[in-house]
Amino acid sequence: MHTAQIRSMSVAACLLLAGCSSFSTNDYAIMHEALKEESAQAQRTAASLHAEVQMLQEQLGASRAAQARSQGELRDSERRLIEAQRSAELKQDELAKATAAREQGEKTGYQVKLQLNELQRLRQRVADADREQKRIKVLQASIKRLTQEVTTLNTTLRDSVVRPKPAAAFGDGPGGTLPPAQLKPSHSLIVQAGDTLFSIARLYDVALADLKALNRLATDRILVGQVLVVPEP
Question: What is the pTM of this model?
Answer without folding.
Answer: 0.31
